[in-house]
Write a structure and sequence with these properties.
It contains 10 helices and 11 strands. With 299 residues, it is an alpha/beta fold. It starts with a strand and ends in a 7-residue tail after the last helix. 45% of the residues are buried. Bound molecules: NADPH dihydro-nicotinamide-adenine-dinucleotide phosphate and 5,10-Methenyltetrahydrofolate (GUE). InterPro entries: Aminoacid_DH-like_N_sf, NAD(P)-bd_dom_sf, THF_DH/CycHdrlase, THF_DH/CycHdrlase_cat_dom, THF_DH/CycHdrlase_CS, THF_DH/CycHdrlase_NAD-bd_dom.
Length: 299
């Protein structure tokens, strides 16, 4: 039976380190890290993440503000708010919750964020730095960064000699994940909806990352014996066994089947999700340290 990788526990360690860093920054420089989360519309799932981000920010002793804008907010109004946050010295990290409503060009919004405050790591400058190995000054997207820490706990920092397969090629998860694995010396393949024989390819992976958005797509016989399986997927499905109209969260991996074969697997919930929020705190602290001219801690 595979090890269940406890993302909640590792996330607690990261949050504790962010709090320690924030305490030091306050004591030495009088600087309080500040984060702004912007959400447009009232998607219930987004509300959950935004609430837990604010809760963790408070736990870390950060200054935290939330801007909840109506679903019909204009692009111009959103860009103007981002302009204000870019100029606000109390704010070190800006996160605009995605997806945005269809009438707003999310690319334009993301590129309007000051790259030095882009704690999501979605701005071209940060994407380019990650792609060229400038990871000392880049912001790395939170979900892949958190996934790498979980992989490190199982496999160590150097993945030389290991094969990795990333299923999914989105800009927010799949592509940055592949870049991080490559930077750690894994031999990386990126799979997507046009990849032939996905089960066979996945079976070659010492490290298998699923970031697809399809509930329990990865089956037990897709998993190489002993593999490290990172399940990024967050899918809400019907759970009639819990009562009429009830739902539950599952990942992109069939957990029980994968755990019978793998060496280690992340659960959903309690795996990558809590790490994403923890890395947002880490990135915000790093941003505040850089601005204050203090060497940031390594996470
Ligand atoms: N834990 C966390 O903190 C986070 C979790 N998520 C979750 O991760 C999942 C992925 O998110 P995201 O990257 O934004 O999703 P996207 O929808 O942007 O990307 C999904 C990717 O999966 C590929 N794909 C879709 N169907 C198949 C298939 N049948 N076989 C192979 N590949 C397929 C797509 O391929 P193609 O490009 O060819 O269309 C695409 O590259 C979702 O469940 C999301 O909720 C996301 C962000 C954070
Ligand atoms: N600009 C932007 N940045 C993001 O990082 C971003 C985003 N937009 N849009 C949505 C996705 C999704 N995402 C999650 C974060 C935490 C959990 C999380 O904590 N999940 C808990 C469960 C939470 C629950 O019970 O609903 C867990 O997996 O244990 C999940 C998903 C960040 N995203």
């Amino acid at each position: 039976m595979a090890e269940k990788i406890d993302g909640r526990k590792v996330a607690e360690d990261v949050v504790a380190a962010a709090k320690t860093g924030a305490d030091r920054l306050k004591a030495e420089k009088g600087v309080v890290p500040g984060i702004a989360v912007v959400i447009v519309g009232t998607d219930p799932a987004s509300q959950v993440y935004v609430a837990s981000k604010s809760k963790k920010a408070k736990e870390c002793g950060f200054h935290s503000v939330q801007h909840e804008l109506a679903a019909d907010t204009s692009e111009a109004a959103l860009l103007s708010l981002i302009g204000d946050l870019n100029a606000d010295p109390a704010i070190h990290g800006i996160l605009v919750q995605l997806p945005l409503p269809d009438h707003i060009d999310s690319g334009r919004v993301i590129q309007s964020i000051d790259p030095d405050k882009d704690v999501d790591g979605f701005h071209f400058i940060n994407v380019g730095k990650l792609g060229t190995g400038e990871t000392d000054t880049a912001f790395v997207p939170c979900t892949p960064a958190g996934s790498m820490i979980l992989i490190e706990r199982v496999r160590g920092r150097d993945l030389s000699g290991l094969t990795a397969v990333v299923v999914g090629r989105s800009n927010i998860v799949g592509k940055p994940m592949a870049n991080l694995l490559l930077a750690a010396n894994a031999t990386v393949t990126i799979a997507h909806s046009r990849t032939p024989d996905l089960p066979g390819l996945c079976r070659t992976a010492d490290i298998l990352v699923a970031a697809v958005g399809r509930p329990q797509m990865v089956k037990g016989d897709w998993v190489k014996p002993g593999a490290t399986v990172i399940d990024v997927g967050i899918n809400r499905i019907a759970a009639p066994e819990r009562g009429e109209g009830k739902t539950r969260l599952v990942g992109d991996v069939d957990y029980d089947a994968a755990a019978a074969v793998a060496g280690a697997v992340t659960p959903v919930p309690g795996g990558v999700g809590p790490m994403t929020i923890a890395m947002l705190m880490a990135n915000t602290l790093v941003s505040a340290c850089r601005r204050a001219g203090v060497e940031p801690p390594r996470f």
